[in-house]
Amino acid sequence: VACSMAGEEDFFLEEKRFKQHCEEFVKHSQQIGDGWEWRTSKDLGDGYLSKTHFQVRNRHIPPDPKEKNNDNVEQTLLAHVEESLDDSQVAGVCAAEEVIRYEYHVLYSSSYQVPVLYFRACFLDGRPLTLEEIWRSVHACYQDRLQEGPWETITQQEHPILGQPFFVLHPCRTNEFISAVLAGPQKHNRHTNYIILWLSTVGPVVGLNLPLSYAKVAPEQNSNTD
Amino acid sequence: MTDDKDVLRDVWFGRIPTCFTLYQDEITEREAEPYYLLLPRISYLTLVTDKVKKHFQKVMKQEEVSEIWFEYEGTPLKWHYPIGLLFDLHASNTALPWSITVHFKNFPEKDLLHCHSKDVIEAHFMACIKEADALKHKSQVINEMQKKDHKQLWMGLQNDKFEQFWAINRKLMEYPPEENGFRYIPFRIYQATTERPFIQKLFRPIATGGHLHTLGDLLKDVCPSAVAPEDGEQKTQVMIHGIEPMLETPIQWLSEHMSYPDNFLHISIIPRPTD
């Protein structure tokens, strides 16, 4: 797989295109009941994607993320039990496990011209997760990268539209890996939904998974696509 | 005529006389005296209030102390905003000293970011600088710098060292000779009355015709209510670092000379006092 680094043409996402891809994304989400919606801000007309879901987490402390052999990775994957629950199931969860309410928002960064993933998480009693708890819950596969530079990966920031504290997955390196992936399809197949591509890559880092059916989304042909 | 470089010094050394008072419901072993301090406009509350914390912790039991947070007239103060911005936005037309209330309990999770260590402040500061450079130079200048240069920006701020800071920051204020300014201007416009914390948009300092955009042009584009007089009278003030710059000022000049150390122009739109 060719890895395009700086020097190759950068793929930037314009805000209008961001909105179009989000619209498409929400349409598909509605078709499969995946729970995403678009929220428009009242004052300036910008907006963001939003989804809330509940996750069950095994209360056992995850195995030491520094242990590297394959067996442990598999065990770690299983130990992070992540089943999505709907509201009616939440009450029935047994006490040895914790239920965490995650709220994910996808906003557009005009500074970096990429989408950015914001999220917050709290226990059912309303207690928010701390940054340390969030870091610890990052999937085992990504722990190495996280520990190399936690402060450049996930930090707490103010939500630019709501003004409340959220956790953010830093966008400054998004362009690196997105360009690498999009350089291919962009040329011979313009019909790639940036949001699906990007979210399916970064989402799993913070417990957000996209059902495979998103891969089948075929954007509408329209004369505005360049 | 004042040299432009003098403006850089005036901005850096701006101070706000502040009186810190412990919240009355905090549990103390003896009476807590207020603590007075000159706060640097360009810094952050949690970076410059170690003495405030120590002063009040002396009269409190250890178990009554958890993360410190600050509030002004019922509004939790966001430590991640520069002090000068907080003052301009919330208290600029009130009598000095600025009266801030200190809390050690009931941290407002829904309003404030946590700040458990100086690392958090550094990470936030550097993230702002990087975002500013993404706008000004597509991140080319900041990415070309070494880690030690990044560190020098932070140390300069932390230790109040103007020369140390600007030795590096001047590179972030340069632009290619064939251009007349930055690609886009890093700015944020704040109004205390909105739910949205700030307005930030892409804005070029140079118009397609080649002339320089002004502060007035920026406001007209991004926040028209701040310039358009209703009833023929200007109901708001546009404030940066405690002053109202002329709307004719080129925004490129403002960006180079009146940005905060994070390289952003933080602009407050506040009600004009009716005296």
Automatic annotation (TrEMBL), chain A:
Transmembrane segments: none annotated. It is found in: Cytoplasm. One of its GO terms (biological process) is protein modification by small protein conjugation. InterPro entries: Atg3/Atg10 (IPR007135). Keywords: Autophagy, Cytoplasm, Protein transport, Transferase, Transport, Ubl conjugation pathway. GO terms for cellular component: cytosol. Belongs to the ATG10 family. E2-like enzyme involved in autophagy. Acts as an E2-like enzyme that catalyzes the conjugation of ATG12 to ATG5. ATG12 conjugation to ATG5 is required for autophagy. Likely serves as an ATG5-recognition molecule. Not involved in ATG12 conjugation to ATG3. Plays a role in adenovirus-mediated cell lysis. This is Ubiquitin-like-conjugating enzyme ATG10.
TrEMBL record, chain B:
Residues 184-269 form the Autophagy protein ATG5 UblB domain. One of its GO terms (cellular component) is phagophore. InterPro entries: Atg5, ATG5_HBR, Atg5_HR, ATG5_UblA, Atg5_UblA_dom_sf, ATG5_UblB. The keyword Ubl conjugation applies. It comes from the Eukaryota. GO terms for molecular function: Atg8-family ligase activity. It is a peripheral membrane protein. Keywords: Acetylation, Apoptosis, Autophagy, Cytoplasm, Immunity, Isopeptide bond, Membrane, Ubl conjugation. Residues 11-104 form the Autophagy protein ATG5 UblA domain. Conjugated with ATG12. Belongs to the ATG5 family. This is Autophagy protein 5. It comes from Scytalopus superciliaris. The gene is Atg5.
